User: What shape does this take?
Amino acid sequence: MTMRQRFYGLAAEALDEHPHVAMVFAEIGVGEMPKHPRMFNVGIREQLMIGVAAGLALEGYRPVVHSYTPFVVERPYEQIKLDLGHQDVGAVLVSTGASYDSAYSGRTHQAPEDVAVISALPGWTVHVPGHPDELETLFTRALANDDRVYIRMSDESNHAPVRGDGLVVLREGSDAAPLVVAVGPTLGPTLAATAELDATVAYLATVRPFDAEGLRAAFRGTDVVLVEPYLVGTSSAEVSRALSDRPHRLLALGVPNAEFRHYGEAAEHRAAHGLDAAGIRASLDRFESGADPRRRL
Amino acid sequence: MAIAQHLGYDDLPALMTRLTGDEKHDWSSLSTLDVLWVLYDRVLTADDRFLLSKGHGPAAYYAVLAAKGFIPVEGLDGFGTFDSPLGYHPDRVIAPGVEISSGSLGHGLGIAVGRALAGRRTFCLVGNGELDEGSNWEAVQWAGRIGLGALTAVVVDNHSSTYHWPGGVEQRFILEGWDGVRVDGRDHEALEAAFRHEVAEQPRCIVADVRRPS
Assistant: This one.
């Protein structure tokens, strides 16, 4: 079952179990949801979707907003900034269609910059679950709070969920080994890429606030490799801030900031962006050999 | 700080002079003054919400809030200064009595729809120029189609928008399923009657016509 399918089930349950929870959708996903007095479909009106969520939050409800990534994050961006943030109210924004999930749809249905632009606004918690079970944990927790939460769902999923909050170290390398931080669904290819290497591998499903303490605790050598499934470098500044007093080198992997005019399959895009196991391994090898990893571009 | 409780309409010019230091201004020409006064003096109850969507030129709003005891009168003096809670566009988090932060046009109606959906009787003031923003029409369309009776939009029409609304802006609300009426925006009795005219399962648009005296 995909994260998206799991989400609709969880959302329907939440409506029944929590009288303060309300859903605000804009057509996308409505067919997957039961009819309910607090399940609102505003039609194809994403600015209104956020405004309505804000109004409900101001009246004490916990709104859950859901749409395809570009239409929940970018189209109503000023509403996210002002109707939620500036009014000082919260909502749970749940996107589907991550980065290149919808490769065949083209650029209009892709927003790999989602985490970067949400992170540019104050007070947001950003979750990047790597497995439907993680989605369930993070979504359930988000419903119990009243803050601003963005959950980035993806069609990509790791084989198994990771237990634990913050930065979770999954494999210890030697003291000199690079610290490889895999975010959300990049864990599978990252584990495959590092299987034969001396590396410490850690996992992160919540990228804002960034677990600086966890990163510092796990960091023992000189090198950090950040593997993010969205815009390359989205969390580089967080890593630099966390390690500002420690000499380090940072390699950031992710989706390039470019108009990528190809359709096809998600797997083809993953490979083209160097985010499959072979691509991550190649970048790691170049980085560890001292070669400039940008040279391949 | 002392809170004034019994200031009236005739006290508003003095309150606005405190805000701006301008003693010569003909405050009665302000387009929103009468609408705000009638709402706060005669219509709104403690259970209602009033959202100033347009946010611009909030002197009349702050003056009315001060007259009604939400803002201490002496608090008006520092308007727009670093430590004042009262800025050129209102911030609900720091300004007493203010129910939404506004200033960027076209945000209030969407939030008002959410509050009204929650069952709250909600009045939202928008400007005729502000209605250029497409986001308003997302709210107007949907509120009309679902018959959101708890919502009232008050359009202060000072005929200032560059491209105008041929046939009257209220026609666009009516077409979308709203009850719509145009009244003299200086006539307190007419405004009050319009605000009190509720229609079951239909949002209401009251256009307050405030054509500037020539």
